[in-house]
Amino acid sequence: MRILGIESSCDETAASVVEDGIRILSSEVASQVAIHHRYGGVVPELASRRHVEAICPVVEAALMGCGMKVRDLDAVAVTQGPGLVGALLVGFGFGRALAFGAGLPCVGVNHLLGHVHSVFLEADRKPPVYPFVALVVSGGHTALYHVPDPLTLRLLGQTRDDAAGEAYDKVAKLMGLGYPGGAVVDGMAAEGRSAGISFPRAFLDKEGLDFSFSGLKSAVARYLTEDGGKTPRVDIAAAFQEAVVEVLVTKAFLAVKRMGCRDLIIVGGVAANRGLKQRAGEEARRQDVRLHVPSPSLCGDNAAMIAAAGYHYLKAGKMLALEGDVFSRATDPERQGVLHR
Ligand code: KG4
Ligand code: ZN
After folding, report:
1. 244 near 236, Cβ under 8 Å?
2. Which of 50, 109, 191, 322 sits at a 20 to 30 Å CA gap from 99?
3. Considering only CA atoms, which residue is closest to atom 3 of ligand 1?
């Protein structure tokens, strides 16, 4: 079963052909980072316009990349939400029209479920075993899910304010490092020493699985002002990263224990973070948990993960209605198997 995946929920226009939900035949990602960089964040209208320009060439490149024509496809999978509505509408409208014109089935995929399926695309690694716990950490989301089957996400906890990636981006901005700054701060943290600087860890209530990162960001802002440039930036980055990673890892393993699972997956843009991977790896060995983190190219937004998740929608017969529409928020009730408490 060969599925064309299309993703346009934020600032990446992406298309990919994936076979049977696990084998990547081609994957194209057109990043808009250069466009949004100077604004310090994604400008929704600019994102939509760039998607309109990029969508045809990106889909064409994905098809050419595996030597296929539209008639060789079995289905089209498009991101339906959550994300920026104007951005989503471009990929969603394009994918649905393409499927309609070619007489192919079309499925609307939840972006977060897409991130979860990114771990099944590592051909040379053992996939996670259901049920497992998923930590989804990106620029827009920080949440823990119990995943009992390929199409269900049960929310266990989520951020009450900023997403982890958002905290990284804000701290990068405070340090004048540009947007998005997660990877840059990660690189700096590797060179710094956190000794002597302790930023607050927002564990909220000890037993809870919710997160909060806005206080940490404010603490870094205060530190930068009061310090007046005395402390090396790399040390501040290291201390910030340590605070983020400690909370993410502690809560993720608490969730694994509570749900009685053996497998934990960490997905989304922030899953590329080296500090997070290292700390989670140590904890996994200690607690005898199987940890799955996709390679960096599959952590950020891509369309292979949408095609991979789409395969399960298709198998379950969850085709899009002709009058289907996009949705912006993860908390829209009962959207495509994503259950919220
Ligand atoms: O999943 P993604 O590409 O887009 C969203 O759905 O949000 O995630 C992008 C986010 C950005 O906030 C970026 O700064 C962050 O992931 N990020 C990182 C790293 N690489 C990307 N954060 C920390 N460490 C990294 N190495
Ligand atoms: Zn994403």
Report:
1. no
2. 50
3. 300
